[in-house]
Write a structure and sequence with these properties.
This protein is of the alpha+beta class. It is 51% helix and 10% strand. It has 20 helices and twelve strands. A hairpin with a 5-residue loop joins strand 6 and strand 7. The protein is globular. Bound molecules: protoporphyrin IX containing FE (HEM). Protoporphyrin IX containing FE binds next to helix 5, helix 7, helix 15 and helix 20.
Amino acid sequence: MYQAIILGSILLVLLYILKRARVRDTRLNMPPIPRYKIPIIGHTYSYFFNSEEFLKQCKKEHGDIFSIYAWGQVKTIVGKEYSHEILAREETFSFKRAFVERVPYAVLLKNMGLITPATLLKDHVFYKLSSYSERMQKSLYSTAQKHFNISDQPKVFDNLYHIMTKIVSSTIANVYIGEEESKHDEIIAAFGGITSELSIFLMVPPFLNLIYPGLHNYAIRTLVKSGLFNPAAKYRDVLIKHIKKQVCKRLQEKEKYGNSWKRPDDLLQDIIERDGFNPNNINYSLLSDQIFVLLFPSIHTTAGGCANLLMDLASRPQYIQELYEEQLEVHKEADENGILPFEALNNMNKLDSCIRESLRLTGHIVTLEHMALKDYTFSNGLQIPKDRIVDIYADDVYQDESLQGPNPKSFEPFRHVDANVSASKIGKSYLPFGGGKHACPGRHFAVSEIKFFMHKFILNYNFRTESGKIEERIRIGPYAFPSSSRIIIEKRIK
Ligand code: HEM
């Protein structure tokens, strides 16, 4: 027993010495690391429990680029003056590489190496957004009706993220695998389940890395491989079942009706018409992985954006009337079924400004984690090594008056109305969709969905927080998640 304890202690000390050598690498002109008192723990405690003040202090003492030692790893935090270098140099900094370290897609999906999600979306979804407009609205309105289901009495809801995940899942299912399949509860549950379960990977801090760097990722991969927690394996059969049903049906109908066949318009149909698809040897596992890989980026972010916006407005109901009046005006463009033309989105200036403000104040203290693919020298001469994780210091960008205008910390829903910058327009002072070559290709889709949803919601309901107070985001370390506080929704008296 004693021998094991002594051996374990020696091992820990050795590991610590090894790690320290990595922290103090003198090969490059590295960003400064603030002093810390407790070995191994480093800055973890301050970074996790007091990230706002801790990083502010670090920047004050060490300048625009500094590194911290948290969760057994050195990471570099880059302030507003240099953050554009990360977004502009896609050959050096990769968002995707940092992301798959946390959400292990390569272990979750057999065919990950064969899929390029951004290309799939750019080629088959975004240029067709306007043609999906009617279906998006119908799906959003009917599922919102189902999940909120408000009669004459006010109703209380908590966990808006959860409800919005179901609503957005239904719209995404409609556009990705078709109207027919999107009507099945089983498929909506799978789309929503995949999204919520993958988000757990982002929420759990990498505490095992305190024992040894990389142990957290190793444990996650082992967990996924063993099947103990594997959202892909859990939902694969449901996805394949519905995709197979549609593909077989479509191939048969095409065969039967020839030129008079009415081609369904959705991502699945586009994929099966791509070069290389062999109807005589269909790889359903690949088809299902191609859809799977898109679910988390499309649903988690849009549902979170919508939940945050609802809570921001419920926290400040004094602004809802002005939005209501704008939406009443826009609604004059709707047809007899209440469906808006796609172009009507351009006339929702106040709502668009609210969305931009809510996304601006998403609440992350740091954001857009990237991995350095090679050694890099910032324009101020500081250097970081290959494989270094680099975060953009979001607070530094969003609390700067020269970038955001007066009172940058306060939520001012109509801040952007006269500025002629839409919610999907990216720039140095607005980072929710990233930037550069890899800026989110789904941003127009996401903002259109949020606008269509909010249009109807504001026309139909009044809403406020149950506490009557401003409800802030949930904070886990430096990252923010939608509040789960309760809101009261009641039918608007027209
Ligand atoms: C409010 C909603 C959304 C937010 C906040 C968001 C945010 C982001 C961010 C920060 C990135 C990384 C950008 C970078 O590397 O600089 C990204 C990438 C991406 N997003 Fe979104 N996104 C949203 C909605 C969507 C939707 C609806 C889709 C799909 C329909 C989507 C698909 C993607 C894809 C495929 C990428 C990877 C792009 C690439 O690697 O080139 N996103 N998103």
